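Much of our argument rests on the idea that a fold can be written as discrete symbols. Part of our work consisted of pairing the sequence of a single chain with a tokenised description of its backbone. The amino acid sequence and the backbone structure tokens for this protein are reproduced below.
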Amino acid sequence: MQRHYLQVPEFEVLPAPVYFRHDEFGADTHSASHRHAWGQLNYVSHGVMQLEIAGRRFLSPPQYAVWIPPHAEHSCYNRYAVVYRSVYLALEHCKGMPTEPCTLVLSPILKAILNDFAERDIHVAQGEADLRLAQVLLDQLALSPAEQRYLPFAETPLLAQVLDAMQAEPGDNRSQAEWASQMHTTERTLARHCQRELGMSLGEWRQRLRFLRALDALESGSAIQAIAFDLGYSTASAFITMFQRLAGCTPEQYRRQALHR
């Protein structure tokens, strides 16, 4: 199957120290591997973008963004259509940003500014009001909590086996104690591996996995109740509550936005 490649802006120098880019990309689209001398924030307000940065894989679902430091080689793949927001930052604005690729937790203010500029088709802030918004964005970026990845990988075989089993069956509701027993270890040892290798609990990792699987299922047209049961929720309302907390909208609203796009 022939790949559909996205057009990557070919700037020799940035048009402005803070440059906003926004677009909508269709399903099964790629960007070829490339690098540039400025930093880049990748945010997807709808869908999930998969990125490879300096040989490492990252996911950018709603509520999170991926930071690409200057000169880091990167590419992306969109399994489903995405609504894309991006900010290019000149070197002077990268000084307070992480020096390694990472996932950033975006504040509501940051998301609102990115969406506002996209709706008004603003690439370079001009005028006092928009310049102030751009400065607020820079301030908020500096305060954004950083994580290595949205869905981290395990380093030890013990934890890797647990995560592989969860990915094969995300609806499995076994507790941390039950997983520990199956792996012939203690619950405390398993919890320690999770915090050291994942930076989160096993329950939070499973919830993130389920959220990503839910996005795929919604895009493919599956019924909400069926998605809920497949992901291990006893009721559709419990699934909807989880999804709304992570996505900022209900599953049905997310699906309608996808159809509208």
